[in-house]
Request: fold
Amino acid sequence: NLVPGTPTNLMISPPSGSCDQLMVTWTAPSNTGGPGAVSVTYKMYLDGAMQGSSLSTTSKTLSGLMDNKEYTVSVEAVNVAGSGERVTGSMFTRPKAPSISSLSASSSTQFIITLTAPDRSSSLTYKCTISTTVRVLSSKTVTVTVLQYTV
Reply:
């Protein structure tokens, strides 16, 4: 028997709405190592450290990661003869959103919103869309502005 081939189509992406996870998927190698090597499992590495035990599926969600950090993920196929070559890729986790630390009216048609940058965030640009329902007692118009700012 021979070691299996290299997994292909490695995809690493942050799940929607998550700042501390990465979803990793790959395609099994076409060469499993020969007729006696029926069973292939996978080992996954995050920044060089093996993650848990061998996997029998071609996907895994990595959790408990730091937000806005680049991670390197590697996957290798394993059979009875040993491990094949690793396929490697990198991806950033999503940054956390800033929090609103204060909101005040500066006039009858303007608001001042003070935002606090999340921990571990530096030089990030945020696009902030503000939507609201405003009940106006007079015929005044309230304008809602889309802001872009760098923290």
Notes: DSSP finds no helices and twelve strands in the chain.
